[in-house]
Amino acid sequence: MQMDGATALIKSLEHAGVDLVFGLPGGAILPVYDPLIESSIRHVLVRHEQGAGHMASGYAHATGKCGVSIVTSGPGATNMVTPLLDAYLDSIPMVVITGQVAYGAIGSDAFQEADTTGITMSVTKHNYLVTEAADIPRVIHEAFHIATTGRPGPVLVDIPKDIVNPAAPQSQMEWYWPESVDLPGYQPTLDGHIGKVKQAVKLIRRAERPVIYAGGGLLRARAAEGLLRFAELTGIPVVTTLMARGVIPDDHPQCLGMPGMHGNYTAVTAMQEADLLIALGARFDDRVTGRLDGFAPDAKIVHVDIDPAELGKVRRPDVPIVGDVRRVLEDLNSQIDKAGGLESQADRSAWKSRISGWQEKYPLTYEPPQPGSDLKPQYVLEQLRDLSPQDTIVASGVGQHQMWASQYWTFRHPYTWINSGGLGTMGYSIPAAIGAKAGAPDTTVWAVDGDGCFQMTAQELVTAAAERIPVKVALLNNGYLGMVRQWQEMFYDERFSEVYLDPNLPDYCKWAEAMGCVAIRVDSAEEVGPAIERANSINDRPVMIEFRTDPVEKVFPMVPAGASNSELLVDPSQRDGSDGATQNGAASNGAATAEASSDGSDENKSEELL
Amino acid sequence: MTSADSVVARSSEPASLHVLTVLVQNRFGVLARVAGLFSRRGFNIYSLAVAPTQDDSLSRITIVVDARSAPLEQVHKQLNKLINVITVRQLDPTNSVERELGLFTVTAAADDPRLVASLEDFGGAEILETGGGSVIVSFSGAPTRVDVLEDTLEQIGITEIQRTGRIALTSVTDATEESDQS
After folding, report:
1. pLDDT of B114-171, one tens digit each?
2. Which of A214, A329, A494, A544 sees the fewest Cβ atoms within 10 Å?
3. Is residue A181 part of a domain?
4. Domain check: are A74 and A107 in the same one?
5. Domain range for residue A321?
6. Other beta carbons within 10 Å of A311
């Protein structure tokens, strides 16, 4: 069948299983938007291209399917750079279609021309500049294959206007849909090496203080069930990284919660004291390890990842296993089963009692509010958690509110926590929540946001209202770039530089109302519950609750930048100075701890960036 | 093994050059992808040579990488992640043939006895052009030999140098081959 490139592009997207795209049209992409009118694909019209990218990401997080965005050339494409890198670092499957000036005009500095493939080369898993209409179905097919297989990631396809413009002869092509892909340089290893699996099982059985270090790769691989079985077959406790929250239910007795810079005492300390870390789809990120040469000093490492480059990138594994973690877990589970399951595991009663001792002594905590005092953000999150359905999807921005959300929510289901872990993109939550809600319309979706983040992408609430995607926003307004403020208080001698935002400017409720939301303002603890209940009952439009929270509240525990995880600072109320080595940091103030560690190598210094 | 031993870090040792031969699909922007990967990951390229192979759809890139900048294994693995890269092979210097071509503009007459003596030891070295009190010398050989010639000509006076960067293939005389990792 003869057709033009634009029709072929839309038809290719349909063949790839796309039913929803997020985008914004413009000059170079105009021809592609024309056949969209007849297509079965739903298009969500965003207000800024960055929103389209994060919506595709939120959609992918929630559904496990590939997120898709379509934007125009030049500024449309450059506005997509942040979401692409965000998705690249968090391994989110995404395909982004960008318009480009006519092929013959490339290089001439034409209107809205950008070297999109050049600019996005280092922020995508792969990208394409399509030069002929006849290549469109093949390239789209390959793009979806690359984005969704192996270690998932974003793929960009740049389409010159002339090859999709029906008026141009070069846009004419014969329709086809390729049966398979021909990518000789791309063959991800899916099955783990069975010899290595057996070696891992040997280490696991003998380990006396093992910890499962569960990373976001488990969610990308849809391996939550395999993980649960592995944990229960071995009895080994599990820490869930910021990217993996929910992969095993937080209320499971073996789940220790989040490790890392703002992890809870037990999760951080269990990793530090472990004799074996079983890293599954995790990448030893600096926010998890703290100062690298002090991280888990006695631990042997079993590292499973589909990306061979992650094995040995940061910490040399004793047993490296390249493979799809879902399949590797199946193999591990059957080997452990064969070896006698739980019965065959080393005696770990001492380890278990140490862990429960830490849990008892250092639970997550915050200073309870006094009558008349400012609203505590942690209290807001506890109420939000308790008053919302258990399968609620939570999408957060970046900063203090993100850490509190991760700490205080009880995740009971995988794929219910969406956040920007690797890149730390402020403004992520609102568009990501919209994408998630569009993909899971029957699920309650809360965006937990800060006032700094809200001002970066709030305009997408217009999209939510216009497209009838009723997300809910819990805005924790403390009038500051809160995490920056916390660092300036603790490590810069309370010298507050350019960090105050003013809780009254803008008027968030008026702003939200102007964007078509129901807006509720909450100043005191008594108002929190009723406001959340009211918001949860509204399903025909977006809702925003502005919680006026304590401006000086800080996130604890905290490992100061450049410090070892053994120098974790717990909540001030838990610092009694009598708990031995792991409390050294807590006994002194934060600034002194950071000072003491500033003689670290240059490598560690780079970690001091927020 | 303590955790300090198992931390993967950049080394401060003297230059440690390794030759990677990378077979790539002959696609738009593939050299930019390889070069971009090196700059993005902080790997140092010592020299680089690219040309098509006997198969028009493939090119071979010979990269000499300074492994002080990053563990060679990381360079290798990151290259392999590029979709257009088909194979990456590290060449064992004792089991490969390496060549480099150098052009040198030397301030000397063609019959300058120092020049004549210098070139005597370098079979195949030739004078391509003379004029204006200078000569252009061409020499192709093992990269270390090109280094020696460069040092020798430096004594006389070099005004310009262009070297191609090394190219290399696995030796045919020895059956033990480096394994491809793709």
Report:
1. 999 999 989 899 999 999 999 999 999 999 999 999 999 999 999 999 999 999 999 9
2. A494
3. no
4. yes
5. 194-361
6. 22
User: Which residues of B fall below an 8 Å CB-CB distance to A?
Assistant: 2-4, 6-10, 24-25, 28-29, 32-33, 36-37, 40, 71, 73-74, 77-78, 80-86, 182
Are domains B3-91 and B96-168 of this chain identical in fold?
yes
**Residue among B3, B8, B71 whose CB faces A296 most closely:** B3
CA-to-CA distance for A590 and A559, rounded, in angstroms?
9
Are residues A513 and A390 part of one domain? yes
Q: What is the pLDDT of residues A138-163, one digit of tens each?
A: 999 999 999 999 999 999 999 999 99
pTM comes to 0.93
CATH architecture of the domain formed by B96-168: 2-Layer Sandwich (3.30)
Number of domains within chain A: 4
Partners of A117 on chain B (C-beta within 8 Å) are 29
Residue of A126, A185, A297 lying closest to B3 (CB–CB): A297
Domain B3-91 = CATH 3.30.1540.10: no
Q: Is A38 found in the same domain as A141?
A: yes
Q: Which residues of A touch B82 (CB under 8 A)?
A: 185
- Residue where one domain finishes, among candidates A326, A361, A396: A361
- Provide the token pair at A223: 């391996």
Nearest CA among A283, A284, A281 for reference residue A327: A281
Cβ–Cβ gap A117/B10 under 8 Å: no
Sign of CA pseudo-dihedral A171, A174, A175, A177 = negative
Cα B159 to Cα A330, A419, B34, B110, B150: the distances in Å are 66, 58, 32, 15, 11
Query: What residues of A act catalytically?
Result: 49, 111-112, 161, 483
- Residues pairing with A160 in the sheet: A100
Q: In what order do the strands lie in the sheet with B58-66?
A: B44-52, B58-66, B17-25, B85-91
Rounded Cα distance, A513 and A526, in Å: 23
Our CA-based measurement puts residue B61 at a distance from the nearest CA of chain A, in whole angstroms, of 15
Residue type at position B157: G
B73 vs A contacts (CB less than 8 Å): 312
Place of tokens 């001792």: A357
Q: Which residues of B touch A316 (CB under 8 A)?
A: 6-8
Do β-strands A172-174 and A2-4 pair in parallel, antiparallel, or remain unpaired? Answer: antiparallel
Q: Tokens 């089991």 correspond to what residue? A: B95
Domain ranges of chain B: 3-91, 96-168
Considering CB atoms only, which of B7, B10, B74 is closest to A309?
B74
